[in-house]
């Protein structure tokens, strides 16, 4: 298996990044939080997890090892596939997921598109003894440079997570005052937008 990838960021898509590794372009599926930290033309090292299916090999890239380990653990819960596990990490940091499972917090888990009441209860039941306690890993870099066009990044992230374009438009409008007041950290604004949609 491919444990990590180091290369130059050749292209950034809505839900993935292409890294040039020795002349080969590897596409890694990433959360908006991970994509927000990448810059085209810069070198990056991303921990990776490969998901093998009968008809595909998909490489998922992460900002940190903790995110990768949480992703792989989420996949062991029944009913959780790679897309849902990635959506969970787009909405919540690994520590937030650990806290939610430890506290039987169904509401936090159902904020993720695709997880209903029963699904959240099943995830809690199956992972409670294995997910561990919060470790205090920061969910994002506080010194991340402001991303240009944060509206389009947040909008694309929401649509990629299953919301309609109209819902994404409303959520982006709702968090615009927050962006003007606190800066344009895409990961934080995406979480705020998801909280707006979960109401």
């Amino acid at each position: 298996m491919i444990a990590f990838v180091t290369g130059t960021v050749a292209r950034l898509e809505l839900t993935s990044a292409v890294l040039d590794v020795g002349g080969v372009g590897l596409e890694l599926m990433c959360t908006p939080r991970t994509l927000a930290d990448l810059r085209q033309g810069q070198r990056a090292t991303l921990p990776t997890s490969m998901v093998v299916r009968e008809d595909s090999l998909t490489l998922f890239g992460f900002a940190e090892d903790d995110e990768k380990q949480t992703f792989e653990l989420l996949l062991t819960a029944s009913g959780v596939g790679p897309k849902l596990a990635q959506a969970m990490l787009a909405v919540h940091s690994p520590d937030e997921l650990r806290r939610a499972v430890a506290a039987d917090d169904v509401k936090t888990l159902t904020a993720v598109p695709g997880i209903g009441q029963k699904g959240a209860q099943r995830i809690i039941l199956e992972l409670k003894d294995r997910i561990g306690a919060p470790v205090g890993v920061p969910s994002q870099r506080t010194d991340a440079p402001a991303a240009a066009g944060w509206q389009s990044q947040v909008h694309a992230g929401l649509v990629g997570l299953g919301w309609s374009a109209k819902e994404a438009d409303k959520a982006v409008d709702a968090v615009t005052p927050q962006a003007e007041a606190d800066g344009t950290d895409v990961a934080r604004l995406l979480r705020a937008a998801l909280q707006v949609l979960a109401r």
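The chain has a mean pLDDT of 85. The CA atoms of residues 49 and 196 lie 30 Å apart.
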